[in-house]
From TrEMBL, chain A:
Belongs to the small Tim family. InterPro entries: Tim10-like, Tim10-like_dom_sf. GO terms for biological process: protein transport. SUPFAM superfamilies: Tim10-like (SSF144122). Pfam families: zf-Tim10_DDP (PF02953). This is Mitochondrial import inner membrane translocase subunit. Residues 9-72 form the Tim10-like domain. The lineage of its organism: Eukaryota, Viridiplantae, Streptophyta, Embryophyta, Tracheophyta. Mitochondrial intermembrane chaperone that participates in the import and insertion of some multi-pass transmembrane proteins into the mitochondrial inner membrane. Also required for the transfer of beta-barrel precursors from the TOM complex to the sorting and assembly machinery (SAM complex) of the outer membrane. Acts as a chaperone-like protein that protects the hydrophobic precursors from aggregation and guide them through the mitochondrial intermembrane space. It is found in: Mitochondrion inner membrane.
TrEMBL record, chain B:
GO terms for cellular component: mitochondrial inner membrane; mitochondrial intermembrane space chaperone complex. Keywords: Chaperone, Disulfide bond, Membrane, Metal-binding, Mitochondrion, Mitochondrion inner membrane, Protein transport, Translocation, Transport, Zinc. It is found in: Mitochondrion inner membrane; Mitochondrion intermembrane space. Residues 1-22 have a biased composition (Low complexity). It comes from Dendrobium chrysotoxum (Orchid). Residues 1-24 are annotated as: Disordered. Mitochondrial intermembrane chaperone that participates in the import and insertion of some multi-pass transmembrane proteins into the mitochondrial inner membrane. Also required for the transfer of beta-barrel precursors from the TOM complex to the sorting and assembly machinery (SAM complex) of the outer membrane. Acts as a chaperone-like protein that protects the hydrophobic precursors from aggregation and guide them through the mitochondrial intermembrane space. This is Mitochondrial import inner membrane translocase subunit.
Length: 74, 93
C-alpha cells in the first residue's frame, strides 16, 4: 500500500516533468523558426535572445486567452 | 545487482511472487527510459532544424562551412532551449 502510494507520487512527478519538457520543446521549436531567421552565429544577438523570451511568454499569454475564450463558450 | 539487465525478468517473476516488483527498480527503469525518450526527441528536432538551416543545397559532400554551421546551430538550439525554459519558469511575468 505504502509502495503504491510512493509509485503514484513518482508517476505524478514524472508526468509533470514530461509536460514541462514537452512545453519547452514545443516552444523552442516554434520560436526558433520565428526568431532565428538567418544562419546561426557563434552567439545569439540581443535581438534574437529577447525575441525568444518574448515569443515564449506571449505564447503563454495567448494560451490563457484561448483557454478563457473556450471556457466562456461552455 | 544491475537493475536494468535484470528488470524484465524481475518484473515478470515479481508479479507472480508475493512481494511484487521492487518499486525502486521500476522507478529507475522508467526514469532511464524517459530520459532516453527525451533525448531522442530532442535530437530529432535538432537534426531537422539544423538541416533546414545549414544544408540549403545538398552537395556531393558536406562542406566545411556546412559543418561549422551545424555545430553552431546545435549549440544555439541548446541555448535557445535554456532561454525558453527560463522565460517560462524563472522570470517575473
Amino acid at each position: 500500500m505504502e509502495k503504491s502510494e510512493e509509485l503514484q507520487q513518482f508517476l505524478e512527478q514524472e508526468k509533470q516533468k514530461a509536460m514541462i519538457s514537452e512545453m519547452v520543446g514545443k516552444l523552442t521549436n516554434v520560436c526558433w523558426d520565428k526568431c532565428i531567421t538567418g544562419t546561426p552565429g557563434s552567439k545569439f544577438s540581443s535581438g534574437e535572445t529577447s525575441c525568444l523570451t518574448n515569443c515564449a511568454q506571449r505564447y503563454m499569454d495567448m494560451s490563457i486567452i484561448i483557454m478563457k475564450r473556450f471556457q466562456s463558450m461552455q | 545487482m544491475d537493475p536494468f539487465s535484470s528488470s524484465s525478468s524481475s518484473l515478470s517473476s515479481g508479479a507472480s511472487g508475493s512481494s511484487g516488483p521492487s518499486a525502486e527498480a521500476m522507478m529507475d527503469q522508467l526514469k532511464a527510459q524517459l530520459a532516453q525518450a527525451y533525448a531522442e526527441e530532442f535530437l530529432e528536432t535538432v537534426r531537422s532544424k539544423c538541416f533546414e538551416k545549414c544544408i540549403t543545397k545538398p552537395g556531393t559532400s558536406l562542406s566545411g562551412s556546412e559543418s561549422s554551421c551545424i555545430s553552431r546551430c546545435v549549440e544555439r538550439y541548446i541555448e535557445a532551449t535554456g532561454i525558453i525554459g527560463r522565460a517560462l519558469f524563472s522570470s517575473p511575468r
